[in-house]
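2 proteins. here.
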Amino acid sequence: MTTQSLEKSLDVVGIGNAIVDVLVQADDAFLAQHDLTKGTMALVDEARAERLYASVGAGLETSGGSAANTLAGIAQLGGRAGFIGRVRDDQLGGIFAHDIRAVGARFETPAATEGPSTARCLILVTPDAQRTMCTYLGASVGLDPADLDLSMVAESRLLYLEGYLWDSDAAKQAFIAAAEVARSHGGQVALSLSDAFCVERHRASFQELVDGHVDVLFANEMEIMALYETDSFEAALEQVRGRCRIAALTRSALGSVVLEGSSTHRIEPFKLGSLVDTTGAGDLYAAGFLHGLAQGWDAVRCGQLGSLCAGQVVTQLGPRPMVDLKALMQAHCSPDPAA
């Protein structure tokens, strides 16, 4: 770790969609009735979001958003985290801001005073614990370079970017501007591909981003295969090898594979209880991995901590851990390889 990185006041700053999640239990018939594909994320307009919300039962409201979940997890692990994202000055915006600050993350992006309402995501959890997401992006897509606290980015060892932002041209420019600032101040850039359909919408530009701007890539099995247009995970693995410093590829019950140069590390999953809800599993894997990386851990221990955090969050409803993640880390993942 360089002297410059040791002087950083933040471990990880993330940029992503600031969303309030509404988690509801549903069955396959409901998905079919509303023409929803299980396990995917669909973007919806405000009218459809309201219709879907009116069609389901009582839900659990919790602050979410992929990158925000990751940064909240890092803060819970004891890391110094910051988040940049746009909310509106409405009730949901207030909920989002309160929740992310309450876990110890810095959140200073000013709320919009006009325009679309705060984003929300209806997450339908089926009995097999799969989650199907219908997302209204609302105010979050209004993020642009003027919203960025570039001093926060410059102060961070790692900048974490959410692939979902690539659906907004303004947010995309904010994304690139932040990556340039991070790099110019000795930081590293991490990217989550977020969703296979998102990858398919922006494949060429994602490939260019991975090749030219990304140090650490996070993707699940479907996303990495979509990126390289193959139905073979092993073929996709070899395609991405060497394009960035580290690629952390998650495979649900099969654990994860971490590529680092010519090395391939296969990380076993942690099973900490019954599977309840997969919402946030990838986000919390990234949280554990990035926290370890910011502390100078090697790639294997980073992957193990990511797997531990993911293994915990799938045993509960919702994407924000309801246990003491720091204590869990201390019990299962020693930073000392000799311990």
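next one coming up
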Amino acid sequence: MTKKVTKGILLVQLGTPDTPSTPDVRKYLIEFLMDGRVMDIPYINRTLLVKGIIAPTRAPKSAKVYETIWDKETGSPLMYYSLLQKELLQQELGDDYHVELAMRYQNPSIEQALKNMEGMLLDSIRVIPLFPQYASATTGSVIDRVMELMRTWQYFPEVSFVNSYCDHPLMIDVIADNAKIHDLTKYDHYLFSYHGLPVRQLGKVDPSGQLNCPQNGCESCRMESKPYCYLSQCYATSRAIVNKLGLKEGSYTVCFQSRLGKTPWIQPYTSDALHDLAKRGIKKLLVFSPAFVADCIETLDEISVEYAHEFKAAGGEEVQLVESLNDNPKWIETLKSLALNNKN
């Protein structure tokens, strides 16, 4: 007799186009940017901006970039490693668990993953967004979508969400180990580059609406980890890595990449930081990208290609990216810890 699976784990990554073609990239961009938690402006304005300007103009350019990182056999790097993470976690958890992978945007969808799990009559479902630092635009959006889809269920298993794990010791160990592969002493400076957010989104986590965050974040947020504050959790991740590697104060910079539009985003911007460091005579940079748990367009192109060229054009010599977590066994162990709700 087959043993009944009683526990479900839902891993959710951001998403990737189905192919690097312009139509598929446009479809992905529209679904992504039409999310009101990502682009938090009125629906009509968002529709006109996304469907009328951003998607038509960015899709052809982004498609060309996706083609450069797309593997002919395995496809999207993000999809490849996400599926591998799912399979390896399933092996670690065993037959009592059923692990599903979903993308917040595009395929495999959260809707399909939940349909697969609904028919299993599970006792519990634990949702793990694959974003170490909490942000309404990422983790918040995943939780929102899961709750929206599950409200039609006629039975409810115990449902839990992992909302952040910014300084989980096992994850920090992986990042530190990946950095040590490179000779740390050969680099003049260390850069921690996180995906950016509009500044206004930092204050929106305060229900009173009275929080008005500066572009560089509040000083207290840069010094301590606060629940639901994306900026503070990025700094917490950086501090944990710095402490693990024994890096000196002043030898590293925390910055934010991938801004869109003219509205103020969290600063300092990675691009500005690169130029400032080059002006200071910094020649060799080791770059950490701890907001991403798998190789993706932001790491493989934006940092490794675009920013590397920008830094060299400004007078620098080398940009070396610390490898993503991908299928590292200790990262799978981290996911297992999160799945079992083991405390840090």
